[in-house]
Amino acid sequence: MTDDHIRVEQALSSWRRIEAWLAEHVPRSHRRLPPPATESEIRAVEKELDLLIPADVRAFYALHNGTGPASDFDWPVWDGPLPIPADQRDPEREPSGYFLPDGGIGPLAHLATWSDGPAGCERVDEPGQRYLPFIASDPDGLYGVFVDCTPGAGYGQLGGYAEAELPDPGQEPSFAAYLADVADALHTRRIPFQHETSDV
Predict the structure, then answer these.
(1) In Å, what is the CA distance from 8 to each residue of 143, 173, 187?
(2) Mean predicted lDDT score pLDDT of the chain
(3) Backbone phi, psi, residue 27, to 5°
(4) Rounded-to-integer distance, Cα 78 and Cα 95, Å
(5) Domain boundaries in the chain?
(6) Which of 3, 153, 184, 188 has a Cα at 20 to 30 A from 174?
(7) Taking Cα atoms as reference points, which of 156, 102, 134 lies closest to residue 37?
(8) Euclidean distance between CA atoms 114 and 132, whole angstroms
(9) Distance CA 99, CA 89 (A)
(10) 68 to 33, 38, 78, 171: CA distances (angstroms)
């Protein structure tokens, strides 16, 4: 079995644990998980961004095209000051896709937009570097996690990015390892879950 196969199996196993936890504890987030991305959609993103998405990330997109519907990853419709007042909130329109510790896995359609941000696929300061932002903690994708798609030693590793800061590579060895950490943390209650009290 190749390293790619091992990472895919680990990612899928961990995701099954995460999804089971969601179904039990935050059913609205679970119900709103999108359908799979198609192979042609994944290849179109790779072609557009001129990179090869690591096998464990691809495996996730073959299950779900993100952790919530595309509307979860767009700017909110509320035009007033934040936070949104309780009497103005519409639970059916509030994002539930941002349930990972670092935010939410964006749908493929958003990745090209996020790649123009701080991590960026084509980094001017690092020619040849291919960072793909795919987990965001805000709707404009300026803060979150990227996967290193650069061929070579760092391929498949995760790093963090933030507006006006240089990307910080090598924070996790792989997306599969990240999902394993998240699954363990959820099942042992080691991380707070922002939707637990309101997601029904």
Answers:
(1) 26, 13, 21
(2) 86
(3) -60, -30
(4) 12
(5) 3-73+86-187
(6) 188
(7) 134
(8) 8
(9) 19
(10) 5, 16, 19, 24
CATH 1.10.490.10 fits 3-73+86-187, yes or no: no
Residue 167 CB neighbours (<10 A): 21
- Is the predicted pLDDT of residue 192 greater than 60, yes or no? no
User: If you search the block for the tokens 């595309």, which residue do you land on?
Assistant: 70
> pLDDT tens, 82-119?
556 667 665 555 668 888 989 999 999 999 888 888 77
Length of the chain: 200
Name the burial class of residue 94, with classes exposed (0-12), middle (13-18) and buried (19+) by CB atoms within 10 angstroms of its CB: middle
pLDDT in tens, 125-139: 677 889 999 999 887
DSSP state of 147: E
**Which residue in the block uniquely carries the two structure tokens 């007033």?**
80
